[in-house]
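Weekly puzzle thread! Below is a chain. First person to post its structure in token form gets bragging rights.
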Amino acid sequence: SFPKRAGSANYKTTFSASLGDGEDLDPVTLVQIPDRPMHNEKDGGWFELLDDLEGQLLGVCDGSVGVSDIMTQFAAMEEEENFEKISEQDQILLENILRR
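Winning reply:
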């Protein structure tokens, strides 16, 4: 399977800084994919990413990279390793990748 997002993706990161010690920097990454079926022009069509993994997956899902290559890229695995012998942490990562 070669996952493919619906068209090009535009990213932007915003943050708010308080006047205090700088500890209150909370960056928010937004993405805009005008060709996606659920695109809504409300707020310019921008929606917040759940986390960095979601943003990275959107970046690599252009239809040219297979799921196994994506998993190898994100997991601590060698290309020759078999998916039958992966760690519990990599199993959770794989489930997160497939769910998104």
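Puzzle host: Confirmed. Bonus trivia for everyone else. The longest strand covers residues 10-14.
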